Amino acid sequence: MPSPPASRKLLRIHKDDNVLIVVNPVQPGDRDLVDDHEIVITQRIDVGHKVAARLIRQGEKVYKCGVPIGSAREDIPAGAHVHLHNLMSDYIETYTLDKDRTYVK
Amino acid sequence: MSNNTPPLTGYVRSDGRKGIRNYVVVAYLVECAHHVAREIAESFKGQPVHLIGFGGCYPNAYADRMMNRLCTHPNVGAALLLSLGCESFNRHKLEENIAASHRPVHTIVIQQTGGTRKSIAAGVEWVRQALREIEGVPRAPLTVEELVVGTVCGGSDATSGVSANPAVGRAFDLLVAQGAAAIFEETGEMIGLGGIMAARAVTPELGQELRQSVDKAAYYYRQMGHASFAPGNADGGLTTIEEKSIGAYCKSGDAPITGLIKPGDLPRKGGLYLLDVVPDGEPRFGFPNINDNAEIAELIACGSHLILFTTGRGSVVGSAISPVIKICANPQTYERMRDDMDVNAGKILRLEASVDDVGREIYRKVLEVASGDHSCSESLGHQEFVLTYKSFEPIGPHCLPV
Fold first, then answer.
1. How far apart are CA B269 and CA B298, in angstroms?
2. Which of B88, B142, B284, B297 is the most buried if burial means most Cβ atoms within 10 Å?
3. E strand map for B99-246
């Protein structure tokens, strides 16, 4: 895994990845340069979460660590948070608790 | 690197294996005997007495095998069995097997002993004697080659897969290079990775077995309607079971995969083994493992002397029988819960150490705990234990090729 400088906010783990990992918390308007592409963040996102490195089309596979981790539910613009709302498993649906503490998928 | 580490000694058992601990286990054979067993074990708080058991009243070959393996585990010096008297667990055969291993063993049947109070008194008396008796178990030098180390992850977040899990992978590589047996597990968290794993098998036939074990897990969890994925995983940034799987899989390191085993199978020699924890046949008894401790018990039944447990969100569990070493992936979690954490892998994310550095630190911690140092969960008194109903077919002829 390449090491990010301390000021870095986003990290690409594998060259084939179309998502980046948040390594320091980001706010709307934050920018980071990843492989010569500037990514502009559109919302607050915590460490460990994923951000689209480029436009990902609905149905396209999402790659992390060079491995497919599911398919886009909708078009995901560059810089957007990639999570349960726009990424689905190709194997088994993910269930979690929503803001109202209700079990949802 | 073995030159800088303390010399290890082990408790010599009749089957040739050596233990790094010398415990009396108090084992209940049905939930109805649990309270009596717990009262006995709790009379020895702070002493090497651990409580395990099986709650079911109906017979189950898997639970039977698990209990036999656990009561004759190298870290166990003696066993007290607690039966109500009418359950179907084969207590006679279990006692015979433990006796055949030259361990002190005794069965208390609560109905025959005259109820709760008399059974507790008889049990406490027996354990007191057993503790004295096992002080005389011979000790002999123990090499890293003789160690069996299991790994599991629990309370994972998105940091687990980039810090603690790859670091355990490096520690596994060091252990396997020294001739130890290293076991990784949870095929339900290798979904999407069957092909990648198959390519690491020492034979193509074993590769096929590994691939099938992952296909089986995907089918099983689909039948359950729920992947091995908890709400905390999503809070921590993980979205799908494939993504969680990538992180979990890193714990296996880079060594070739020597074999595929099932709960209760013992590795025949050093190397890296996959433990297939997903039941065979149509789903019958619910989720493969109801929580992390059910997996830990299976790693221990395969002979694991100690367990490397990675966590990002912050799990606190330990285990009966084998010490659990906690490797914390997330630097914020480490700061909040450091009393529970043996190794801070979060410093990888803070760029204060490399994955290799933490891998070596974990390896050293394994040797320290094997030489008698207590892990954090051990010092805090954690002795969680879970055993439920499952069913397995024996492993196929290609699973242990060499």
1. 18
2. B297
3. 105-109, 139-142, 148-153, 181-185
Pair B113, B199 in one domain: no
Give strand ranges (E) for B305-359: 306-311, 324-328, 343-344
CATH number at residue B57: 3.40.50.2300
Please tell me which of the candidates A23, A84, A89 has its beta carbon nearest to residue B242: A89
Sheet arrangement for strand B343-344: B257-261, B271-275, B181-185, B148-153, B306-311, B324-328, B343-344
SS3 B225: coil
Kindly give the pairing relationship between strand B76-83 and strand B23-28: parallel
- The whole-number pLDDT of residue A105 equals 58
What span, in angstroms and rounded, lies between the C-alpha atoms of B53 and B37?
9
Chain A nearest-CA distance from B234, in A, is 7
In one letter, which amino acid is B205? E
Asked whether the predicted pLDDT for residue A5 surpasses 70, the reply is: no
Report DSSP state, residue A45.
B
Which neighbouring-strand residues pair with A34?
Answer: A37
**B239 and A84 in contact by Cβ < 8 A?**
yes
Q: How many domains does chain A have?
A: 1
Q: How far apart are CA B24 and CA B320, in angstroms?
A: 11
Task: Print the domain residue range for B349.
Answer: 144-379
**Strands A37-40, A10-11: parallel, antiparallel or unpaired by DSSP?**
unpaired
- Entry pTM: 0.91
A1 pLDDT band (50/70/90 cuts)?
A: very low
Q: How large is the angle between the packed helices B292-301 and B61-71, nearest 10 degrees?
A: 60
Instruction: For chain A, list residues whose CB is within 8 angstroms of any CB belonging to chain B.
Output: 1, 3-4, 6, 13, 21-23, 46-50, 64-65, 67-70, 82-84, 87-97
- In a domain, residue B4? The reply is no
Q: Which residue, B136, B158, B175, sits at the end of a domain? A: B136
**Rounded to whole angstroms, how far apart are CA atoms B199 and B400?**
16
Contact B210, B257 (CB under 8 A): yes
Give the model confidence (pLDDT) of B293-351 as tens digits.
Answer: 999 999 999 999 999 999 999 999 999 999 999 999 999 999 999 999 999 999 988 88
What is the domain range of residue A63?
10-104
Judge if B357 and B297 occupy the same domain. yes
Nearest-angstrom CA–CA distance, B386 and B199: 34
- Structure-token match 């569990």, residue found: B317
B68 shares a domain with B200: no
